[in-house]
C-alpha cells in the first residue's frame, strides 16, 4: 500500500503534463512541400479533430485542409489545418482558409527552399492518423532561426500563479478552519479515551475488591 500514493501522484502529473504538451502551442521550423484538401472519415480518433464549424461535435466525414512539410533534419511532418472556433483548445481560430492560402504561397522546393515557422498544437500519431493542428505560418530567415515559445511561457507562468494562489488560500483556510476542527475532534477522542480508562480502572478495582 505504501506504493499506491506515489504511483497515483506520478500518474496525475503524467496526465497533466501530457495535457499541457498537447494543448500548448509549439513552433516548428520547416519547408512547406505541398498543401491539399482531403475527405476524412472519422472513427476512434474523432476526439483529436474539431467539428466542421470549429466546435467539438465532429461529424462522421468531411473535408480537411492539410499542409505537408519537411523539417531541417529531413524528417517529414504533416499538419491538419482546422478552425478551433469556440471549442477546445480556446485559440478561437476561424481563419483556416487564410492559413491554407499562406501555406500554399510559401511552399518551395529543396533547390530553392523557403523556411517557415509553423505554430501548432497537438501530436502526430501515424498509426492512429492523428495530426497536429496548424495555428499560423510565418516566413523566417533560415532553418537555424531560434524560436522562443512566448505564448506557452506566458500561459505556464499564469497557470503557475493561479495554482500558487489557490494553494496559499487552501493552506490559510486549512489553518483557520480544518486544523482547529481536527484538534477539537482529537481532544474529544482523548477525553473519551481517558474517561473510558478511568471507568476501566474503577471497574477493575471494584472487581478485585469484590473477589477478595
Automatic annotation (TrEMBL):
Transmembrane annotation, as ranges: 147-168
Organism of provenance: Roseivivax halodurans JCM 10272
Protein name: DUF1523 domain-containing protein
Assigned keywords, A-Z: Membrane, Transmembrane, Transmembrane helix
InterPro entries assigned to the protein according to its UniProt record, in alphabetical order: Phage_phiNM3_A0EWY4
Entries under Pfam families matching the protein: DUF1523
Amino acid at each position: 500500500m505504501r506504493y499506491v500514493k506515489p504511483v497515483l501522484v506520478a500518474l496525475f502529473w503524467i496526465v497533466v503534463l501530457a495535457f499541457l504538451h498537447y494543448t500548448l502551442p509549439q513552433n516548428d521550423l520547416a519547408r512547406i512541400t505541398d498543401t491539399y484538401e482531403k475527405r476524412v472519415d472519422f472513427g476512434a480518433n474523432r476526439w483529436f479533430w474539431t467539428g466542421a464549424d470549429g466546435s467539438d461535435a465532429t461529424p462522421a466525414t468531411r473535408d480537411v485542409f492539410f499542409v505537408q512539410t519537411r523539417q531541417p533534419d529531413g524528417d517529414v511532418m504533416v499538419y491538419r489545418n482546422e478552425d478551433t472556433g469556440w471549442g477546445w483548445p480556446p485559440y478561437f481560430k476561424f481563419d483556416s482558409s487564410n492559413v491554407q492560402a499562406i501555406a500554399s504561397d510559401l511552399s518551395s522546393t529543396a533547390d530553392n527552399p523557403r523556411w517557415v515557422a509553423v505554430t501548432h498544437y497537438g501530436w502526430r500519431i501515424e498509426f492512429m492518423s492523428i495530426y497536429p493542428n496548424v495555428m499560423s505560418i510565418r516566413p523566417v530567415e533560415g532553418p537555424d532561426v531560434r524560436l522562443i515559445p512566448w505564448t506557452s511561457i506566458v500561459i505556464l507562468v499564469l497557470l503557475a500563479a493561479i495554482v500558487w494562489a489557490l494553494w496559499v488560500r487552501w493552506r490559510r483556510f486549512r489553518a483557520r478552519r480544518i486544523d482547529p476542527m481536527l484538534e477539537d475532534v482529537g481532544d474529544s477522542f482523548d477525553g473519551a479515551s481517558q474517561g473510558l480508562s478511568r471507568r476501566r480502572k474503577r471497574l477493575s478495582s471494584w472487581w478485585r475488591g469484590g473477589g477478595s
